[in-house]
Each structure stands twice: as structure tokens, then as C-alpha cells.
Automatic annotation (TrEMBL):
Gene Ontology, cellular component aspect: endoplasmic reticulum membrane
Name of the molecule in the record: Dolichol-phosphate mannosyltransferase subunit 1
Stored PANTHER family: DOLICHOL-PHOSPHATE MANNOSYLTRANSFERASE SUBUNIT 1 (PTHR43398)
GO molecular function, a single term: dolichyl-phosphate beta-D-mannosyltransferase activity
Domain Glycosyltransferase 2-like: 6-169
InterPro entries reported for this sequence: DPM1-like, Glyco_trans_2-like, Nucleotide-diphossugar_trans
Species name: Wickerhamomyces mucosus
Length: 267
């Protein structure tokens, strides 16, 4: 049976998550849909036994493979590499660490049949972020989301859980593969059809139980550089300066209100 769905999983030091992710995704899909689906891990030479784990799963009959990159590093470029190597028309990107629920894949794929691009969102009724996700991560994520507001109307542009139809990747040459925020980059740059909406797929964001997050200060700086490039790509300089002024006024108002509250509590 021909492959229709390709699930691309960027992975760095994720050996312990490879088996649960694979078995849970295929269990959720059931027999028929499993035959039309492949999982491709894109690993950056972790050398932690990930390759052997995938080989064992292959022997057990799972349609799973692993690309090991030795000359390149980074989440976004890993995802793009997986997209290029995929066999399906319906592409999904999800994290290896089970923070994106494997059991949601069948419904995600259904939603992707009705939209050119679907973004998983943690900001919708009935879903959310695990209470154990650290406060500092919430603050960083909230700030990053605010800065992306001028670029897209989707509710969770920071999401690493998203999907699209392969045919829209034709112009992928312009896409900048630095950093973590590949969904935002694609949303801003791909020639998605104007008469169809971007789908939003609510899901609850879990916490990692195995391995560690790879978010670093370097990734955050890459995000700011990416934002600058996307602003320049989308807007004129006068609009960007306008945004900057409005943003500065908002921040100053916020600080003034905080100071007023502080003085009021002291008097
Ligand atoms: N190949 C490869 N994979 C990577 C790299 N860096 C991270 N990954 C993989 O990318 C996935 C997400 O990385 P995490 O380190 O778990 O990211 P996070 O801090 O949990 O951030 C997540 O939440 C953000 C929203 O707040 C998302 O924006 C982000 O994409 C990710 O889903 C994991 O499967 C991880 O192994 C890399 O350099 N190379
Ligand atoms: Mg994670």
C-alpha cells in the first residue's frame, strides 16, 4: 500500500523515547492506517543507541526509519531534511519526547486532509500545558508568542507540532533553517492557498519524562534573528519601526503600572 502520511521526528539524544513514540503512534492508527504511514526520525549523530533502537523496531515490522546527519545540526534543518526524504503527501512534524501526544495522530491526520497547513495549538478550550511545565518556560514561550503576533494569526506559532501538504513545500528554498521555529518560518513564507484556512488542532502539551530539553540561550538568540528576518521579509522598514514604537510604549506602560502598584503598596 502506498505511503500517504509521513511523520517526521527531529531527535537528538532521544533513544529512550523512540520506542514508546513509535509503538504508541502505530497503535493509535490501527492496522489499515498504519500501512499508509511512515515515521522518520532525523537524528544528529547522537550515538546513543537510537539507530539500533530503530533497527529493532524495523525487525518487529514497524515502518520506521532514521536519518543520521553528521555534517549538520539543528531542529529546523532536521525537520526540513525529513520532509525532503518523506514518501507521503501529508507531512507531520512532532517531537520525539512525547510532549506531543502520540494518540492524537489519527485526528491530526484527519484535520490535515481539510487544510493545507495545520498547527497544533495549546491555546484552545479544553486543552493546555501540563502544570509541571516550568514557569520560566511559560514566560519565554509567552514572550516569543507575543513577538510573533505581527507575523501570523495562528494561536500557537511556537508549536513544534504541525503538518502540511508536501506540494506546498515547492518554494522551500527561501526557508531559513536556523533555530527551533520552523512552523512559524513556513507559515510566513510558504505559498499557501489564500482561499483555504490554516487549521488549528488543539492538544495538551505534556512534560518530558526521558532526556533533556535542547532549548538553550543560543536557540533564543536564533529566534530573535529569525524574527528580524521575517519582519523584514513581510513588512517595510517604516512598519517595523511603527511596531517597535508601539511595543516600547506598551512595555513602558506596563513598567509604569508596576511601579505605581509598588508605590501604592508602600504608602
Ligand atoms: N535532529 C535534531 N533534533 C533536535 C535538535 N534540537 C532539538 N531536537 C529535537 O526536537 C524536539 C524538540 O526539542 P526539545 O528540546 O524537546 O524542545 P522543547 O524545549 O521541549 O521545545 C518544544 O516546545 C516548544 C514550544 O514551547 C516548541 O516550539 C519546540 O519546537 C519544541 O516542540 C525533540 O525531539 C528534540 O530531540 C537538534 O539539534 N537536532
Ligand atoms: Mg520537548
Amino acid at each position: 500500500m502506498a505511503i500517504e502520511n509521513s511523520i517526521i521526528v527531529p531527535a537528538y539524544h532521544e533513544k529512550l523515547n523512540i520506542r514508546p513514540l513509535t509503538t504508541r503512534v502505530f497503535a493509535a492508527l490501527g492496522n489499515e492506517d498504519s500501512k499508509k504511514t511512515e515515521i522518520i526520525f532525523v537524528d544528529d549523530n547522537s550515538k546513543d543507541g537510537s539507530v539500533e533502537e530503530v533497527q529493532t523496531l524495523q525487525k518487529e515490522g514497524y515502518n520506521v526509519s532514521i536519518i543520521v546527519r553528521t555534517a549538520e545540526r539543528g531542529l529546523s534543518s532536521a525537520v526540513l531534511r525529513g520532509f525532503v526524504e518523506s514518501n507521503g503527501e501529508y507531512l507531520v512534524c512532532m517531537d520525539a519526547d512525547l510532549q506531543h501526544p502520540p494518540e492524537s495522530i489519527p485526528d491530526f491526520l484527519k484535520t490535515l486532509r481539510n487544510h493545507p497547513f495545520v498547527i497544533g495549538t495549546r491555546y484552545a478550550a479544553g486543552v493546555g500545558i501540563d502544570k509541571d511545565w516550568p514557569l520560566y518556560r511559560r514566560v519565554i514561550s509567552g514572550g516569543a508568542r507575543l513577538l510573533a503576533l505581527p507575523l501570523t494569526s495562528v494561536s500557537d506559532p511556537m508549536s513544534g507540532y504541525f503538518g502540511l501538504h508536501k506540494k506546498y513545500l515547492i518554494n522551500a528554498k527561501q526557508v531559513d533553517a536556523q533555530g527551533f521555529k520552523i512552523a512559524l518560518e513556513l507559515l510566513a513564507k510558504l505559498p499557501l492557498p489564500k482561499d483555504q484556512t490554516v487549521g488549528e488542532f488543539p492538544y495538551s502539551f505534556g512534560v518530558r519524562t526521558e532526556g533533556e530539553s535542547k532549548l538553550s540561550s543560543k536557540v533564543m538568540i536564533q529566534y530573535l534573528a529569525q524574527l528580524k528576518d521575517l519582519y523584514v521579509y513581510k513588512f517595510t522598514w517604516s512598519t517595523i519601526i511603527g511596531f517597535f514604537l508601539i511595543f516600547s510604549i506598551l512595555i513602558m506602560t506596563f513598567i509604569l503600572e508596576l511601579l505605581k502598584g509598588y508605590h501604592a503598596s508602600k504608602n
